[in-house]
Amino acid sequence: MIRVTHPEAPATPVSTPEVPEPAGAPATLPRRAAARTADVAGWVAVLFALDRLTTDLTVVWSTLWSLAWLVLPVWRGGATAGKRLCRLRVVRGGGGPLSLGRALAREAFFLASVAVPVIGVLNVLTVVNDPRRQSLSDKVADTLVVDRAA
């Protein structure tokens, strides 16, 4: 409890809200990998089709598809299709839903790890060695991937 005082007012206690613990145990690396593999397979399949169907707006459609497939489901429901399939959920570090900015930062860092393989390797090593099983992208966005099945 924090006490806030003002020279002209009596001291009044102000309580600070406690951050809830996330529901569910941290997800294991094999389940995270299976979920990400399913997500990437669906994502790439549609990107490939978009590339074949459009020429002028490929970048626009690819960006919109990436947001729709990877970011919006995590922001709105806590899970992509692959995470739902593997019964996983993404939550804030202290529990609770993600903001759009956190979901976007998390997936942007993942895409950077695809583009720069060293970051991808560090991402996996971080999950293996972190007690909360957070990847670098989880740490950047202050998120956790938890098991919904528990």
Helix and strand content put the structural class at alpha+beta
Total strand segments? 4
If you compute it from the alpha carbons, what radius of gyration comes out, rounded to the nearest whole angstrom? 19 Å
Strand order of the largest sheet: 1-2
Provide mean pLDDT, rounded: 83
What is the beta-strand fraction?
Answer: 5-15%
> What is the global morphology?
globular
Helix-strand sequence: EEHHHEHHHE
Biggest sheet details:
2 strands, antiparallel
- Low-confidence runs of at least 5 consecutive residues: none
Helix count from the secondary structure assignment? 6
Distance between the termini: 33 Å
Share of helix among residues?
55-70%
Structural domain count: 1
Describe the structure in your own words.
The chain has 150 residues and is α+β, with helices and mostly antiparallel strands. The chain has one domain (24-145). The protein has helices spanning 29-53, 58-77, 81-85, 100-115, 117-129, 136-141; strands spanning 2-6, 9-14, 88-92, 143-147. The strands form 2 sheets. It has a two-stranded antiparallel ribbon. Strands 3-4 form a two-stranded antiparallel sheet. A hairpin with a 2-residue loop joins strand 1 (2-6) and strand 2 (9-14). The longest helix has 25 residues, at 29-53. The chain is globular and about 55 Å long. The model has no long low-confidence stretch (mean pLDDT 83).
